[in-house]
Structures are given as C-alpha cells and as structure tokens.
Amino acid sequence: MRAAVLHEIGQDKLDVLDDVEAVGFGPGKVRIRVRATGLCHSDLSAMSGVLPQPAPFVPGHEGAGEVIEVGEGVTNVAAGDRVVVCWLPACGACPACRRGQTELCLAGFMNAGTPNFRRPGGDLFGFAGTGTFTEEVVVDAGCAVPIPDDVPFDIAALIGCGVTTGLGAALNTADLEAGSSVAVIGCGGVGISAIQGARLKGAAEIVAVDPVASRRESALRFGATKAVSPDELADAKQQITGGEGFDYVFEVVGRSATARTAYETTRRGGTLVVVGAGAMDDFLQLNMFELFFDEKRILPSMYGGGDVLRSYERTIALWRAGRIDLEGLITHRVPLAGINEALDQMRTGTSLRTCIEI
User: Fold this and answer.
1) Using CA atoms, how far apart are residues 110 and 185, in angstroms rounded to an integer?
2) Residue pair 3/33 in contact by the 8 Å Cβ criterion
3) How many whole angstroms separate alpha carbon 231 and alpha carbon 88?
C-alpha cells in the first residue's frame, strides 16, 4: 500500500512509497482504511525534531476513514463503521482518567514507541501512535471513534485534532466570560478554531494576530472583530483595552517568544492560554515578581483541555446547528501524491487546513 514516509528527522520532504505494510493487527486492534487526513503543524514539528518522534515514520494524526476489520475483544466498532482517528485515546484506568482529565492519559503516547508499519527496509513508526498519511493504518481500538453517517470524512478528520484543540482551548480551558476581550496569536486551523470558540462564548472583542495577510482575512470571516500583524498588536492593545491588556490571550504558535508576547498582552489578572506545541529546549522566562504581582493565570491546553470523546460530540452538534464553520477551514485539497505541496502550503501560511484525500 502507499504511505508518505520521513526517513530521517530534519528532512523537509516526504517520500510517497507503495511498498509499506500496516502491521500489528490482533486482539484489541482495528484496521482502518483512511479516506481523508488533515495536515497539522504538529506533523511539521515532528519532522523537524521540535516534537519527539522516532524515525523513520509515517506522519499524520488527523484522519478519518472506514473500519476494515477488528481484532478479538473489540466491541466499540465493527467492520464498515465510519470513524475518526483519535491520537490520544483514554485508557480509563490511569490516575489522570480516574480524575476526569482524560486528555492527560499517557496510553496514546506509549503507542508511539511501537512500530505499526513495515517495508522491505525495516520497521516504520506512526506519528503519535497513528500515522494517517497512508491508505491503511492499524491502531488500538480506542483510537477508532465512531462518527455519524452524515459527517463527511474531511470534516471528521479536522475534528480529530485541530478543531478539537482550538475550540476546546476556548470552551474548556479558558471557559471565557461573555463580553470579554480576546487576542489569538497564530491563526492557522487551530487558531481559527479558537476564534470560533471565543465567538461562541460571547467575546465582545476578538483580535486575530498573524503575519500572513490571507490568514488575517480568513480570521475576520470566522468571527474575529479585528485582524492585525504581529507588529500592530501593541497598537490594538492600546486601542481596544486602553493599554491594560486583553482578558484572554491564546498563544497558538508554540514558541517562547510568542508566549512572552502573549503574557505581556494579557491584562493583570487575565488569562494566558498556551495552545501551541513547542520544543523541549525552548524556555519561557518569567521573573518571580511579575508572576506574583500581575496574578495572570497561565493555562496550558492539551488537546482542548477536556474529555476528547465529549468534545467530538459537541463539535459535531455545533457543526450540524451551523454554529461553527468547518468546511471553510479546508482551503486546499491534494491527493497523497501531492503531500509535499501540502507541506509547502503549511510552511508558507497559504493554507488554514489542507485535506489530503486518499
């Protein structure tokens, strides 16, 4: 079967091969025929080494498709079911799950260390224990979440990561108050989803911050009340908040420099929500006096900061009701053979989400 492979960390191109085999099928496992997958910035971060991932590997973690077969003991899905791939399944038994913080369950991360593909040259890993840039993938049963028949595969794929992450940051992690002022730094697919979440919660002012003009224009269509480039943020802060700072600031880039800017853009007593996934050697510096004196809440948001399955259900309900726009997030479509074109679109910021149709 075909799959897009990164041979070594640091390479900027993927090699689409037709000699890859999905392996590991057995009890508790599900084989999925991938129909659509989105390109998330985390895939680029894994390719570059910002996020830890063994190589060689098949990127992709935001996918949807059909169940081909299920292993012994699998009861949540059956052959023929339409599913979204969940890269962070909850085991239900660990301390985090028992506390209700299923997004902090480590079971999914443990899968990342086990190869789930093979080719004549040896084993391949799947990114985040999945690897959806492929025609078929074998995953734990918990990674296959059934979806209703009226949800198209491309929409379901987005729900598998970017939309859930961005919406959840606003709805779960921040739980922002109606009438508040908001800034969102980084307006790709996740940032736009955070903007939609802020709009749902009744934010009065939503400032989108991004260096790419087309993304700023898109942010206005999705609910931002103002869109500025990074060097215009200070003026927006002055104009909208009188220089005090925003009630909520979402950092959706994953870099200490933008996190520091976000901190400085948050009002005293306000909330900074860290959504972007950054590198382990990139440190955010805060002095102890400002940390104490400003009393700003710093809230990291992992995968939307809430129960993932409930978040999927909520997103589908909001989409059906026309309260959020998911179709508009897909700005480009390419076949698997055009995956490197999709990478370029992500790197240049010309896309919000590129759907790879398989």
Assistant:
1) 31
2) no
3) 36
Q: One-letter amino acid identity for 76? A: N
Q: How far apart are CA 347 and CA 358, in angstroms?
A: 22
Rounded distance between C-alpha atoms, residue 280 and residue 288, angstroms: 21
Cα–Cα distance for residue pair 337/340, rounded to 1 Å: 8
Q: How many CB atoms lie within 10 A of CB 91?
A: 15
Residues in the chain: 358
For residue 173, pLDDT over 80 is answered with yes
Q: Could you tell me the CA-to-CA distances from 152 to 76, 147, 166, 303, 319 in Å, in that order?
A: 20, 9, 20, 22, 12
Query: Is residue 227 predicted with pLDDT exceeding 80?
Result: yes
Q: Could you give the CA distance from residue 30 to residue 251 in angstroms, rounded to a whole number?
A: 35
Helices 41-48 & 339-348 angle (0-180, nearest 10): 100
- 292: exposed, middle or buried (C-beta count within 10 Å: 0-12, 13-18, 19+)? exposed
**Mean of pLDDT values over 280-308:** 96
- With CA atoms as reference, report the closest residue to 58 among 18, 139, 4: 4
pLDDT at 243: 97
Angle among Cα 200, 202, 203 to the nearest 5 degrees reads 110
Percentage of the chain modeled with pLDDT above 70: 100
Residue pLDDT, tens place only, 272-284: 999 999 999 999 9
**Residues 87-127 pLDDT 10s:** 999 998 999 999 999 999 988 777 778 899 999 989 999 99
Tokens 């993927």 appear where? 14
To the nearest 10°, the Cα dihedral for 253, 255, 256, 260?
-20
Q: Which pLDDT value is given to residue 112?
A: 79
3-class DSSP state for residue 10? coil
Q: Tell me the DSSP string of 76-139.
A: S--TT-EEEE-SS---SSSHHHHTT-GGG--HHHHHTTS--EEETTEEEEEGGGT--SBSEEEE
